[in-house]
Structures are given as C-alpha cells and as structure tokens.
Amino acid sequence: MQIKPSLLTALLILPIFCTSEWTIDLEYSLNGFTNSYPLGNIEMRRGFDGNFTGTFKPSQEQNFGQKLSSAQDETYSVRAKSSTQNGQTFLTTSDPCLFLHSNLFHVFWLSISQEKQQLHTITVFPDTVAWRNDEEGGKYESLGKTCKERSSLASESRGTPKGVVHVVGESTLPTPDTASFVQKMEREKRAKQHGADADNRSFIAKYWMYIVPVVLFAVISSAMNPEGAEGAPAQ
Amino acid sequence: MRLPLLVTITLIASATAIFEDQVGKFDWRKQLIGCPARVDFDKIGSKSDRLLISTEQSILSSLVLNTGNIGWRRIMEDSNQVVQPNGLTFTKDHEYIYSISSDGRSIRVWHKNNGVMARQLTISEQKSTIQAIHVSNGRLHVASGKTLMVFRLGDDKPLETIVAKRERSFSAFFQQDDHLVHVSAFPGDFNLEIVKISDDGSFETPKQVIIDGFDVEKCHHQSQYISCYHNSQLLVADVFAQKVHKTTLDSKLQSISGSGRLFLARGSQKVHILEVTSENGLQVRKSIDLTSSDTVGITENHESIIVASPESIRIVFVNSGKHFEAKREKNEQNSRIRSIFARKNEKDWEIVLVGNDCRIEFVTVDEGSKIVNLEWAREESLINTVSVEMVDLPLSESQQMIEDEFEEEGQQNIIAAFVRRIHSQVGQLIRQVTKNVEKAIQVVTSLSRDGNGVADFINSVRAAGQIGSASSSGPFERDYFNLRKVIIVVTSSGTVFGIDSSDGSYLWKLWLGDAFSPLESQLDQKRVPLFVQRTTAHYQLDGLASVVFSNKITQNGVIVSFNPMIGKVESRNELGYPVKRLTILPIHNHRHVFPVMLIGKNDEIAVFPSIAPEELTPSTTSLYLLDLQKSSVQGLKVDISTQKVTPIWQGNLGLTSDDEIVAVKGKSFNQKVHSQGRVLVTREVQYKYINPNLAAVATINKNTQQLTITLVDIVTGQVVHSASIGKSAKPIHLVHSENWIAYTYWSEKGRRTELGIIELYEGTEENHTQKEMFDSKIVQKLPPVVAQQSYIYAQGVDAMSVSETEQGLTTRSILVAHPSGNIHEVSRRLLDANRPMELTPAMREEMMIGYMPEIAVATEEMINYNQTVHRVRGIKTSPSGLESTSLVLAYGTDLFFTRLVPSGTFDILKDDFDHVLISLVLTGLVVGSYVTKRLARSNALASQWS
Known about the structure:
Number of strands of chain A: 9
Strand content of chain B: 35-45%
Strand order of the largest sheet of chain A: 3-2-1-4-5
Number of strands of chain B: 67
Largest interface: A-B, 51 and 57 residues
Number of domains of chain A: 2
Structural class of chain A: alpha+beta
Number of helices of chain A: 6
Shape of chain A: elongated
Oligomer: heterodimer
Strand content of chain A: 25-35%
Radius of gyration of chain A: 36 Å
Largest sheet of chain B: 7 strands, mixed
Largest sheet of chain A: 5 strands, antiparallel
Shape of chain B: globular
Order of helices and strands of chain A: HEEEHEEHEEHEEHH
Structural class of chain B: mainly beta
Radius of gyration of chain B: 34 Å
C-alpha cells in the first residue's frame, strides 16, 4: 500500500519522458544548498515549427510556501540540470519574498539553442500576472527593506510551486537586405512607366483644380462688373 | 531616378561639414612618432639638420633638429600593434633611406628630404624579424630571415640571392674599407657564418668561425666587431681579422654597447671603456663610476662619453683625462633615461635623450658655461594612450559666489541670509563692472592704436569681444558653456597627462614610476584603468582621479590617486595581491568621492577610499559583476559592506571552447536617456527597453565563423536576446547605448564590412506602467520587442564610439574610425532598425528615411575633414555644458580633438552671428528716428510760420 503513490507517479511520469525531447530537473534551496529539495522539472517539447516549448511539472510538495515564508530574508536558489548536458549545472537565485507575493507562481526564463538542444541559462522570476492585489497595487520592488515591511504577506501562503516557462531561442542577425531593395526599385520603375502610360484621363479630369478657380474668378468678376459699369456713368 | 534623389536628400539631412574659416577653431591634432628605437643625426642639403628616427611603433620619421617638429613621417604596416623594440631596420646614403618593411618582406626606398617613397622591392614572402641592410659601392645588400640578397641601386631585380636552410637568429653586415661581409648565426649554434661579398656583388662560399658563449641576447655589433659578454667576461671578435679578443673585468656585466673601436661594458657600479688596437688587442681605457639612474652613451665621433642622469650630464673625454659635469633641471615627472644619441659639433655637444616614458629631449651642452640647454622636448608616450577621461574645470569665482549664496549651511536667520545675498550680489556686480571697464579700456587703447573710422571701430569692438570669449587666454576656470575641459590621458608606458582641451597644450604630467606595468585584461589587452572619483562640481573640494596598474616586480596592484587639475599625487597604495578586476562604485561617501573597488585573484576586496556601511543605501548595498570564463559564465554579487563575493547565477550563454569573446559592453551608470519612447507613425508610443544592467557580449566561433551577440542581464542572468550570423570575421566592434546595440563585422560572404543595429522596445501597449526604477528581478509581462537591421558599410572599421551629450536629448551619432584615417559620423537617424522599405506619405511627413542597404560614406560627414588620424584605437566622447555639443577625442598614432554637434547647433547662435553690427544698426535706427522726429517737428513748425 505504501509503494502505491510513488508507483503511480512513476507511471505518470514515464509516458511524459517518452514524449518530451529533453527534460531539465530543478531543485531548490533556501540556504545555499546545505539542504536542497526537488522543485520539479521542465519538459522541453519541439513544436511543429521547430521551436521548443517548455512545460513546468512541479513536484508534489505541499509545504513549499511555508518553507519560503519561513526563510523570507534568505536567498531562494534554484539549481538546474539538463538531460542533454552532462555535468553542467545551472544556477539562478531570487528573493523568496517575491514568490510569496506572486502566490508561488514562477516564470522560468530559459535561453536555449534549438539545434544543439542545449540549455544556455535559466532564470527564475516571480510571475507578475499572479501579483497579489495589495495596497501598493502592481508596484512592487525587489529592492530595499525586509520582506515583512514591504508587503502584508498572508500567512496562508501554502501549496505547491506553480509556473510557466518562457523559452528564448537563438535568432539570426539580419544581413543587408539588398535583394528586396532592388526589387522595390524595379517595382517602382515599372510602376512609373506604367503610370505614365496609364494616365490617359481627359485634360479637364487632370487639371480641374486649376481650371475651377479661374472659371470661378471670371464668373464672380463678371457678376460684379455690370454693377460697376452701371455705376460709373451715374457719377 | 529615385535613388540619386534619395541619396541627395540623406546627404542634405546630415551634412554637418564645417566651413573653411572654422578649421582649427574647435579642433586640434597632435601628430606623434612613437618611442624612438634608433636616432640618426643627418644633414639635408647644406644647412637644415634633421634627426632620422625609427620607432617601436614602426614609424620612420624625420624631425627638424632646431624645432623638434615633424619634417615628415611614414607609418608602416602595423603588425597587430606589436611593439618592436628595435624599430625598423634602415640604412641611408646621401640621398635615400633604405628600410626593411612589412615584417621583413620588402624594402622601401625613401627620399631623405621629403619622405616620398621612391621604390619598393620584394625580398621574400616569409616574415622575419632578423633583418640587416647595408648600402655601399652602388649596391644594396639585404638579409631577412633565410634570404640574403644584393641589388644594384635602381634595379628591381636582385643581382644574386642566397637562401639558407634555416631561419637565422643573428644577421649583420660589416664593412672595412672596400671589403664587405655578412655575418649570421643560427639558433643553437656557437658558430658564426661569414659570407664575403666580392667587388662585383657576388657572394663567396660561407666560412664558419666559432665563438664560445655566443648569445644573441648578450651581443652587440659595431663597425667591424661583434662584442659579447658572459658574466664578467667580455669577448670581442674582429670579423675581418677573424680574431677573438677576450678579457675579464672585475664585476658582472649587464649590457654592452659601443661604437667604432670603443666598447662600453656596463656593470652595476661602473662602466668600462675598452678599445681594440692592432698592437695591444683589447684594453680597458677608462672606468667611470655610475649610479643606477645613470645612462651611458657615446658621441658619433667616438671621442667623448656622455653619462646622463636626471640631475646632470657628465661628459668624459676618452683620449684625455678631461671631464666635466653640467647640471640639468630635475623634474620628478620625467622618467629615467633609456638611451642617448649624441654628436659633437664645433661649439657644443648635441644630445638626444630618450626616456623610459618615451620623452624625447634635445639638449645642447656647452663646455665653457657648463650649462645644459633644453632645446625642445616631445612627449611620445601619448601614442600608447589607453584610457581617457574629460574633467570639468573648477567653477569660476562668480559661479562660486552663486553657489555660496545657495549653500545651505545649517539654519540661519533671515537677516543673515539677506546679508549674504546682498554681499554676493554686490560682489557679482563689482566683478561685472571691472570686467566691462577692462574691456572698454582695451577697446579704447586698440582704437587709439589702430586709427579711426567706423570700420576700425567695429573691428576693434569685435576683437575685444573675442578676447573675452577666447578660452585659451582666459583664467583656469570653467567657461560659460563648459566647453573647455581637462583631458586626462593615461598611457601604457606609465605616464598620465593633463591636456587642455582648448588648444591641446600639456597642463601637467605624471610619471607612475619605473615599476609600472599595465594590467592584463580579460580580452588580452594592455589596460590602465582611469576613474574620475570626484569631479570639480564640489567647489570646496578638489577633484580626484585614480589610475590602477600593477607592479612590474611583484605583480601586485597599485592605485594612485591624484588631483586631475594640477596632477598632484594625493595617495599611492600598493595592494598585497594582483588585481583581477576593478570597478568604480556608483555611490559616493560623505566627501563626495566615488570609491574604486579592486578585487584580487582570490576574491580579496579593497575599496579606495573606504566607505562606511552607513553611507550605503538599501539599493546600493551590493554590486553585480559578470564573470566570463571559457564555457562558463557566472553572475557574481559583491556585498560592499561585508566584502563577500557570491555567485548568484551560472550558465554558459552557449559558449564553447571554440568561442572567442571579442567584446563585452555594459552601460555606464550615469548615462542619461531623455525620452522614454519613440512616437510611431500611428501616433502610438513605442517604449524603450532601458535596462541599466544589460550587457552585450559578442563572441566569434573559430570553427563555424559564427558571430553571436548575446544580451544578458547581469543581475539575474536572463538572456534578453541572442542572435548570430555565420561567415563573419574580425574586426568586430560593438557599441552599447540606451536601448540599442550597434556592431560592425567583416562579412566573408559579402566580402565587405557590415554595420548592424539591434533595438529593444517594451512594446506599444497602453497600459505601460511608468516605473520609477527598472527592476531586473521582476520579469516584464512581455519579453522586449527586438528590431534589428543591417547595412553595408563601404569602409573598414578601426574603432567605434557613440556621442554623449548632457541630457541625452540630442540624436546620437555613431563615430566610426576608418583605417584610412577618417572619422565618420553616422547619425542614428540613418543607422536605424526601423527604416521602412516602403515609405507611406504619413511616414514621409514624419521625416523618416526609407531603407537603403548601404550607409553612404560622404566626405562632408568626416568630423576630422582633412586632418588624417592614423591607426585610431579608441574614441572618447564626453558631454559639454551645451546639450547640442559633444566633445570627442580620438586616439591612436595621432590625437585628434573636436566638438561634435550631432543635430546641429540648435541651442547656440551661429559662430558668425554679428552681435556688433546688429547692435550698431539698432542704435543707429533708434538715434536716427529720434533725430528725424526732431527734424520733422522743426520742419513742420517752420512751414507753419512761413
């Protein structure tokens, strides 16, 4: 009976291992790795477009929040090991306070190489989407003061870590875009040639804006003139 | 049709060329020749004496002996900026100079009087530093590496060539009467190979001569002898007689030199003067006692020995017992003398002294008066400039009075404050009145001197106005627009200079000592960091600046603090360990000094001057550093109060062992960004992603030729953006400012230089929260939007920098130094990642420039017009008091200083704005209207009477 839950989790994890391309195991510590506990793992899966997406699978640890709140002014360090890079460990640290404030929601910011399937860096952030709505509003800074002074932390911070993964791949730097510039020039040249031929509107259609004022002026002056012509002999 | 039009428009938009009458008004250039390795006295024509100098920076030049000015200067190829201690190998005849150039691959023949190249001859394809050249009997003999050649003068084809099997370790030509031989040695051998050169120019078969203890490092060759020392033993081999003279001296020898038949064998306490004669062989003629600061030289006619020390010059006659001493003016800031080149003319001795600080001094010593006359001196260490800062001049007296007025010295009562205000304002009034009276007197005196007439009057008023504004003649205080500064220049030779930015004159010099050695930086460059710790903004306190270097003997770090205005050393501290890295802290202590933090090899931390824990604010308790190693990158947090270094993140940034880190650029902590966003055509605002903790890292992979630019947040290790491009090569330059990164690289694919730009934006969302402070530890809701673009740049790039202005309001310009010696100003408007391919009318209204794949290099955009600046290694920009103006110093082989106005002088009247004429016209009009009014009135009265 006692083996059953672990067996169950093993059975659950096994198919995930089969489907994911590579995994990153995470463990955390609040005292500089004197004691460390598993945090969960991140599964990296390649999408149809060739880009990787990551999913965070937390470990079923109920008192994660309590551990954090009991070590508020320590450093929350997360150590990562990638299944594709043997012997390399990745480290990231943050403030436990920030995670208490974000209801234990994490953002894991991964920088990877898509071709080599290797992890470059991992950074853990609190998720600002899950920010607690307290009197300070969304404004919250990691600097200054102790944790307690900064926010009214609820003591009910409990539960398991939750998180989303943001993956940054390596993009390519641009090269001078001569091809499309030449294309554009040619297109413009062609448009100009065509445009010259195509403009076969009538003379009036083309220059009505010059003709109308002249006509208007003529009309108005002729309308004014008869009076003047009548007035002049009267004097 | 469109293309030329567009090109013309872009040219008009950014044409900032100067007018002819502005030449030299704001700018100056210092041409340098470098540290002399060999100096020859020479005569051109019948009267003008010249010095022919070949320097460690592979420059051949001719100085006018009377003035020290450069007659001509030829800059050779730079073999990766390697210092060549022996300079160029050259020889001369009555008309030409023959030099071996391009690392021993070619010979160049120069006209002696004007430095024009007459011919270039090829020796071989192989590089070599073992070179020798000799000209005689109408033939030119050359040895370089394995090759030995003879040319008839004027021919391009060699008469004869011998190629040895091995690379030589020593090579020299010797001549006695009409006999000429070439002597060479091969590494590891004790034999000398002697090749006789017959009268018709052909080589005879080599002969071997054995010299025991021949060591190239410890030998010297002159006229017909090779002299070597080994402990206290001295060997002199006569090449023609093939005879070896030996003698043992009473002390251990340190160096050997000599000329003609004389040898100077220097020990630690004394120098022995030896002579070879056919009757007696090698014999000691004289011994002179020396101290460690003495340097010994010999005149060209081999008759007298010169012993120079910082205090005096001693002249000892070889053939008689006579000697005398002439006192020199001692200057603590000049180093010990490294080498002496001297000759005797009819009246006196002419001596060229070259110091360890690369100072060239030309002195004459007169036997009768026993006085050392300094004719001229040149500071040539500036060619090795590594760090530059520009410091404001101290406040002027009137500015100080204003500062005094608002100084809050405790709570004073209202009357005291009133009295102080009245007092300072009276003081200002008095100053103003005296200044104006002085000016009026000047005008009156110049008027009475120059004659009369309106034109003369206007001219003299103008001249008076110019006297007031001309900064160089003014007192040593800040000018109205803060355009005049003190430029502090630190060189890798161990000197620090204070240079007046208005005319380039030296204000002071500081010699950092014989034990000076530059720091080795992460990117394998010589580095002597300079920090301005306290500016002159606090007028009660003097400015403070520091340089950090390492001790040559102990390798420990040394920090020297000095007053940047007068160059007076305030403190000198030597650490107990070598410095690994160092930074200036962004917080100041109660004396307004920004401390410098030095971190040792084993993470020892020292802070100069120390900072008390209570002076730290919560936001400044720790400092974050980036530690780049091969294939491992760490973020370190340095706690300033507890002085502990802890790693806070670790990763690899994708670096492998094949990757070479080319450049790492962060941002200075006091950079100002005026506008937080950019208005788009759609009237939306695109907010800039301004992260002060962002560093740009450029790496190049040796195998795949892939250039990668990674933007990493140092506090958290977050990779904000990472991008790469294949088929690229060095030189790679990187500039990081505000929210953008500009980079250049050589594209192997296009076989051209390309200039790229990356811009980061937070996006156009309306709910953009105006944060008071950027916080690295809290992730943005959306990752930054990256805009990138790349352009063809039709020139090579030696150095790249960006303009800096007071408030960061002016559009920045990127300054690009070309190998051809130009400095090109590229406006950010052109180097923009958002130039649209298709221009809509709305965009045209916004004055946007359409995309063109090439950034045109126009001659009007050269900030140094025709003042060529060679081998630029760095460009330093600094803000002035005017928002439109940025001060620029480019350094390399030459120094060039100018003012830069990236968006034109929008906040200052034109240089040629005629105040005098306008005020004269105005007063004329007022007076005229008054007079005509009177006239009209009297006229009207008269007409009514009549």
